[in-house]
Amino acid sequence: xxxxxxxxxxxxxxxxxxxxxxxxxxxxxxxxxxxxxxxxxxxxxxxxxxxxxxxxxxxxxxxxxxxxxxxxxxxxxxxxxxxxxxxxxxxxxxxxxxxxxxxxxxxxxxxxxxxxxxxxxxxxxxxxxxxxxxxxxxxxxxxxxxxxxxxxxxxxxxxxxxxxxxxxxxxxxxxxxxxxxxxxxxxxxxxxxxxxxxxxxxxxxxxxxxxxxxxxxxxxxxxxxxxxxxxxxxxxxxxxxxxxxxxxxxxxxxxxxxxxxxxxxxxxxxxxxxxxxxxxxxxxxxxxxxxxxxxxxxxxxxxxxxxxxxxxxxxxxxxxxxxxxxxxxxxxxxxxxxxxxxxxxxxxxxxxxxxxxxxxxxxxxxxxxxxxxxxxxxxxxxxxxxxxxxxxxxxxxxxxxxx
Length: 403
Ligand SMILES: Cc1cc2nc3c(=O)[nH]c(=O)nc-3n(C[C@H](O)[C@H](O)[C@H](O)COP(=O)(O)OP(=O)(O)OC[C@H]3O[C@@H](n4cnc5c(N)ncnc54)[C@H](O)[C@@H]3O)c2cc1C
Known about the structure:
Layout (H helix, E strand, L loop, with lengths): L2 E6 L3 H12 L4 E4 L16 E5 H9 L3 H5 L3 E3 L1 E6 L5 E5 H4 L5 E5 H14 L3 E3 L3 E7 L4 E7 L2 E12 L6 H5 L4 E17 L6 E7 L2 E7 L4 E9 H9 L2 H12 L6 E4 L3 E10 L3 E2 L2 E3 L5 E2 L7 H21 L7 H29 L4 H16 L1 H11 L16
Parallel strand pairs: 1-2, 1-11, 2-8, 5-13, 11-19
Antiparallel strand pairs: 3-7, 4-7, 5-6, 9-10, 10-11, 12-15, 12-16, 12-17, 13-14, 14-15, 17-20, 18-19
Helix pairs in contact: 1-5, 1-9, 9-10
The structure holds flavin-adenine dinucleotide.
Flavin-adenine dinucleotide (FAD) binds next to α1, β3, β9, α6 and β12.
């Protein structure tokens, strides 16, 4: 056996899983298409990630949080509103009895911390390299890896596909996917307002799509503005002053006057769901299993919970002398994760559908919904716990316990 576990795709989710497994003495190989440190690494780019409270605890359990905390901005208030309509809801860390509802960290910073952890954990990283063929067997899975002109065959007990939404390894292990284009893209940038952000995040639903502002370092906000594909070119063509004026018009004055913006990047948005999570000696996790709309900041958080739960399942199997790639072990993982994955998909997809509907009675109903949400503590608490990643069966790492 060349490794206990081979992970195809060393983005945020794959690298987190590798870090967790290596810390427990498992032999892990990552096969990654783009070398770490490359400016164009797709997993560790300019986007910022709103980490749920539960994700912070997982990263802490992996030993990464002390380094990330220095660059993280806490979210202590979230304000949710519907443009052009009354009503709104507020979630606060104080009401939930936590120091912060979540934390905002740059994907690039997480990538750097993970890269160091992979080195310290002696994870074997093959990059640039691609998984080109997979042959599951009785005792092991054989994985053919192409790196430049070379091809190598590696054997492991388990193959994990963590190669993102366009996963080719998912298809190679025989798992199909359902895809739906949202007809929308996310335009992201950083903006500065003339008022301190005071650790407030905003989610504003507009008739063209949701607009989110996340508090970040140097009193900036990270902005995620969802628009129809056809509007992207218009937004990109605007001067900085024109862009700030358009943003102000869409968002209003609740966060103050926007005075500066950074460079803009675009992400087309699709919902992708793998039809199964497991196949013979293979598991699909992270965006390869579920690529979500970024509306509620759930994607990485959900993928990190996949990684923490899979690490726990594999480590426990090893401790009791079981084969971590056996059908029973993989079925147990799939049973565990199904509910959380469905919940996060329904939440994000439901929000996008509900709030992009112009039909007046529906607009009224959703505003009543926001008002009710704000007035009924149990409802608000339920939403806060869901977005903090604290509902359902939690992996040990998310509960602050060692793996
Ligand atoms: C605008 C935007 C904002 C977002 N904001 C948030 C947020 O606030 N909170 C949150 O939780 N989530 C957020 N997300 C979602 C989050 O970014 C993703 O869910 C997360 O990055 C997925 O990580 P991953 O490792 O599963 O996949 P990826 O990041 O796609 O990584 C896949 C990796 O696999 C590699 N790869 C691809 N093909 C192969 C192959 N054949 N062989 C080997 N390697 C391969 C790639 O190079 C890459 O490194 C946001 C997404 C967008 C678009």
